[in-house]
Amino acid sequence: MTSLPQGAGRRCHNTVNPLHSAVYFSPALGKELAPYGIEDPSAVYFAGRAAPLGAAGAGTVTATFYNFSHSLVARFVPAVWESASPATVLAARLRAVDAMLRELLGEETLSSPEMTEAAQLAMTAADACTRPGRPLYAANADLPIPDAPHLAYWHAATMLREHRGDAHIAVLLSAGLDPLEALVSHTASGRGMAPKWVLSTRGYNKQDWAAAQERLRERGLLDAEGELTAEGAELRKELEHATDRLDGAPYEHLGEAGVARLTELAGGFAASAAKAGAFPEDLFGKG
Q1: Which end of the chain is flanked by fewer CB atoms within 10 Å, N or C?
Q2: For 120-144, how does the pLDDT look when each residue is reduced to its tens digit (9 = 90+)?
Q3: Whole-angstrom distance, CA of residue 208 vs CA of residue 215
Q4: Cα–Cα distance between 78 and 287 in angstroms, integer?
């Protein structure tokens, strides 16, 4: 294996991931699933992200998604599969991704040599991902690779995102952070979703949030103002480093030059998507 510059794999992931994540904020997925009676935003999200697992129950979705309230998951899963089978949802998801990328990036970018190159690089990185202990990655890895370069790129981005996410859950468990504690501490770091978005999408309320803050204070990770203590900041730093170690193989396999090039290409796509309104302006932050 090659030795990459420190943080290179994480930086690459952070530029590749936005186009995967954008589909959950795009109206395209809801539009594709609405004819099947899947209209609630949470139902759309759970169906779209869980479909690779098959007709999974609420327990499996809660376990693999980690930071969602089980009561919220159970409101829609497994009932969502009575409205549309996982195969139907997967086909709708791919149509939604196609429509979203055409809107955010434009036809010229989708048909460009750069998109083809990015897809090849991202797929090369994904070749080194491993299935054991990584259920969401493994489920997506079993899906066929789309022919169109922009869809292949999205598919690779999805595999890379879920591979890191599966690893991160293992790290959170090892650190003893429950789902909401993980979210609260991430928000306190300034890098996570704003509280309003956590509360409106993850199935928690303000009382749950306050209780999680108090548990973190008892561990010395959060101060009275809700900011990370030095110990809390160090823990968040170590969580990312530990995740880097578990998620290093794809980027080591791609190599330093490949990682640098994919980061460059993916960063350009992500910036264009963000400029086109892929994400709400108030999605991240402590407010």
Answers
A1: C
A2: 999 999 999 999 999 999 999 999 9
A3: 11
A4: 34
Q: What is the pLDDT of residue 284?
A: 87
DSSP 11: H
What is the C-alpha to C-alpha distance for residues 268 and 250, in angstroms, rounded to an integer?
21
Query: What is the average per-residue pLDDT within 29-47?
Result: 98
Query: What was the pLDDT predicted at 105?
Result: 98
CA 177 to chain centre: 19
- Classify burial at 147, counting beta carbons within 10 Å of its beta carbon; exposed 0-12, middle 13-18, buried 19 or more: exposed
Residue 2 — very low, low, confident or very high, per pLDDT cuts 50/70/90? low
Note the pLDDT tens digit of each residue in 56-88.
999 999 999 999 999 999 999 999 999 999 999
Rounded to 10 degrees, what is the CA torsion of 63, 37, 19, 68? -20
How many residues are given for the chain? 287
Residues paired with 193 in a beta bridge: 284
Cβ atoms of 284 and 191 within 8 Å: the answer is: yes
pLDDT at residue 3 in the model: 80
**Rounded to an integer, what distance in angstroms lies between the CA atom of residue 278 and that of residue 19?**
9
Q: Domain residues of the chain, as ranges?
A: 8-275
